[in-house]
Design goal:
The protein has 277 residues and is an alpha+beta fold. 34% of the residues lie in helices and 20% in strands. Strands 1, 2, 3, 4, 5, 6 and 7 form a seven-stranded antiparallel sheet that branches. Strands 8-9 form a two-stranded antiparallel sheet. The radius of gyration is 19 Å and the shape is globular.
Length: 277
């Protein structure tokens, strides 16, 4: 699994802080190995445009690499929070932006939620708040800004979705089934030995002890992201590791929300059906 570095500040990340922690945001040309057809658009141009439009970056991370000279061009993810958007179920709506300068991805946007109580993040992937790709073209900066405001204009739709999740009580069997889905999304065939999916349902705070789809989703997501879930092995005590890859973390969040949406509608969950760049 590829490691990554990240930085978080709920009051906003300064340019100097971004430069020190996520240098790939500031690339002024693409990595030397990309195609000559690659259209280059600096991420910092988008960051500054969104900041001027009222979106402050609160979290940023980038993939690390062992390839010589590639460090300043790798895939990176930033979360932007507007000061004026209403909260949704105690969470702050955000715009989540992914990009790279090594040819591995173009700009990609999601609507996001950020839970203040636990520094927990969810990336929304529903029919109304799904992912949007923006090609590396001359109008990319304006397109990202437009899509960001479009996401925020539909916060009411997101509120309705969360309300439906909160209203859907889960039986013990259903909660366990969703935890198994979460384990499949997180690890697939490389599931840690000794993992009991029921341990993914262990809430880390009192307010998450309720058993509806919203709180179960958040509890599973936090346990998968942060790690620390006990593993039962003979004569050995260990626990799961937290997410260390920007790309894997994004993919897991998107698929987990999509699974919850399908779970709510009663559909059979196909975790591989959600495509993430």
């Amino acid at each position: 699994m590829t490691a990554h570095r990240s930085i978080y500040n709920e009051n906003g990340i300064s340019v100097d802080q971004l430069s020190a922690a996520v240098p790939s945001v500031f690339a002024q040309q693409p990595f030397s190995g990309v195609s000559s057809r690659y259209g280059f658009v600096p991420t910092i141009d988008v960051v500054e445009d969104l900041r001027a439009s009222g979106f402050k970056p609160v979290q940023a991370g980038q993939t690390l690499t062992r390839v010589a000279g590639k460090r300043d061009f790798t895939r990176h993810v930033l979360r932007f929070r507007p000061d004026y958007a209403p909260t949704v179920a105690g969470s702050h709506p955000e715009v989540v932006l992914m990009n790279s300068h090594d040819g591995s991805s173009g700009f990609k946007l999601w609507a996001g939620l950020f839970r203040m109580v636990c520094a927990n993040g969810l990336i929304v992937c529903t029919s109304t708040m799904g992912a949007v790709s923006v090609p590396h073209r001359s109008n990319a900066v304006e397109a990202v800004r437009s899509r960001s405001f479009d996401f925020l204009s539909r916060v009411d739709n997101l509120s309705d979705t969360v309300a439906r999740y909160e209203a859907r009580s889960l039986t013990d069997e259903e909660a366990f089934s969703f935890a198994e889905i979460g384990a499949q999304i997180r690890w697939g065939s490389e599931r840690p030995a000794g993992l009991n999916a029921r341990d993914l349902l262990m809430a880390r705070r009192f307010e998450d002890a309720r058993q509806n789809l919203w709180t179960v989703l958040n509890t599973i997501q936090e346990n998968l992201t942060r790690g620390g879930v006990n593993l039962t092995r003979a004569n050995r005590r260990s626990s799961t590791r937290g997410m260390r890859s920007v790309q894997d973390d994004t993919r897991m969040n998107v698929r987990l929300w999509a699974a919850a949406d399908e779970f709510l509608s009663g559909d059979i969950v196909d975790v591989e059906a959600v495509e993430v760049a």
